[in-house]
Specification:
By secondary structure, this protein is an alpha+beta fold. It has eleven helices and nine strands. It has one domain (7-64, 104-188, 217-263). The longest helix has 16 residues, at 248-263. The mean pLDDT is 94.
Length: 268
């Protein structure tokens, strides 16, 4: 692959950006913006793990939004179906299995590569799962209640507690998934009923209904701009991608303050 970058260059540039050994790192990545890489997503995951070292933990969002009947992805997939076709589509939907269900194609190749990495663990949420590999993987993924997609009891809550960083690799600086934790901390956030396909106790597919917060990221560009005024982001380039290294807890705290000031809520 002419002009493609390799693992040695990736490792050097990740370290120049500020990725250090022993940390917990959530990665959100666009392989397209990164440019050609010899070995593709596997090489990038290997470089990330080398940068983190044996005591570091790599985390990725491995969501399956198509599995939720209220998601935009599901609505787009079923748009225009008549009643009979819709019933057949729903009956054929596979049950979510944390061990085998691929992450959505919309999550990107790097997310799926983390999920498939030997030794990786994955949380059990049928719509908003996370995968992690490293010493803190079990702590991050073990508990993920269905009603807590991206809140305090989710893997994002564990990332906050562990002082994790987030690497936005070719992703805009405002498109930070942990900002949803700040959304969850607001008084009386909007909720909705979710319905997802899961495996029952006998292994057959069934529907699970649960209530959870209704998420929207349309405010993220404005929120992200405000956060960057008070929180220092690492900035640099990895391959052809502009990258940001974000301290999760300070960014979430700043987002929480911005949301409360904007909506006149008392301090958390």
């Amino acid at each position: 692959m002419s002009g493609a970058i390799g693992g040695t260059q990736l490792l050097r540039e990740l370290r120049e950006l500020g990725v250090t050994e022993g940390g917990v790192l959530l990665v959100q990545a666009s392989m397209r913006r990164l440019g050609p890489v010899r070995g593709g997503a596997r090489t990038v995951v290997q470089a990330l793990r080398r940068a983190l070292g044996p005591t570091g933990t790599l985390v990725a969002y491995t969501g399956t939004p198509e599995n939720s009947l209220s998601s935009r992805a599901h609505r787009e997939a079923t748009a225009g179906l008549d009643r009979g076709a819709l019933e057949r589509f729903l009956a054929a939907m596979p049950a979510f299995d944390p061990a085998t269900t691929p992450s959505s194609p919309t999550m990107g190749a790097l997310s799926e590569e983390v999920r498939r990495t030997r030794g990786a663990l994955r949380s059990s949420h049928p719509q908003c799962s996370f995968a992690a590999v490293g010493p803190e993987a079990a702590r991050i993924t073990a508990v993920h209640p269905r009603s807590c997609h991206l809140g305090e009891e989710s893997p994002i809550g564990r990332l906050y507690e562990l002082g994790a960083s987030a690497l936005l690799l070719g992703i805009p600086s405002w498109l930070l998934s942990p900002y949803h934790l700040a959304d969850c901390r607001q008084p009386e956030p909007p909720t909705q009923l979710y319905r997802c396909r899961v495996a029952g106790q006998d292994g057959t597919a069934e529907w699970a209904e649960f209530e959870g917060i209704r998420f929207d990221d349309r405010h993220f560009p404005e929120l992200g701009s405000a956060v960057r005024q008070s929180v220092k982001f690492g900035e640099g380039w990895v391959g052809a991608a502009e990258c940001f290294l974000v301290p999760v807890a300070p960014a979430v705290d700043a987002a929480d303050r911005w949301l409360r000031e904007r909506r006149n809520f008392p301090p958390h």
